[in-house]
Structure formats: C-alpha cells, structure tokens
Design goal:
This protein is an alpha+beta fold. Helices cover 28% and strands 13% of the residues.
C-alpha cells in the first residue's frame, strides 16, 4: 500500500486534529520518537499542531486526513455545546 495514496494531505474534509486517533501531546510525540529530544523537542514551535496517529502509526500534520477518521469525543461534545440554543448544554427545568 502506498501511504501517500492512503493519507489525504491538507484536504478540505475532516482533519486529523479532530480525530480520536490523533495525539499531539508533546510528551506522547517524544515517547513515540525516542531520540527526538537529542535534536529538538516535542514541545518545539516548529511542530505546530502536528502529531502522531495511533491508528496508522504515522507522524502527520493536524490538517491531514484519511478514511479511518473517527470524530473525537472532545470535538463531539464541543459541537453539541455550540449547537445548543444558548451556547451551552440545554437543561430542562420543571
């Protein structure tokens, strides 16, 4: 399988940043790439929002995407709050 055929670089659909499999915590990036601290750091500003896909086992841009996209719980909860009438979760009052 060709990786570049599988990964859609900088597309206009769902992006890795919003995927449940995408991890961009600097500590996790440093753990996945032992020796990174020798040259730089997972906390470096040049890393931007890039991260590690635990599904595909690849380091990717947060703007990339693939067919395995699964909306993260955090993004799902955020969209529910934004879609509610007052910008917060609606609660019924008796």
């Amino acid at each position: 399988m060709k990786l570049l055929d599988f990964i859609q670089l900088r597309n206009s659909g769902p992006i890795c940043q919003d995927c449940a499999y995408f991890q961009n915590d600097p500590a996790l990036v440093e753990e996945a790439y032992a020796g990174l601290r020798t040259m730089s750091s997972g906390y470096a500003s040049v890393r931007d929002r890039d991260g590690f896909c635990i599904y595909n086992q690849l380091y990717l841009s947060a703007r990339d995407s693939c067919a395995c996209f699964t909306l993260s719980e955090q993004v799902l909860q955020s969209s529910i709050i934004q879609d509610s009438p007052n910008g917060s979760e609606s609660q019924s009052h008796s």
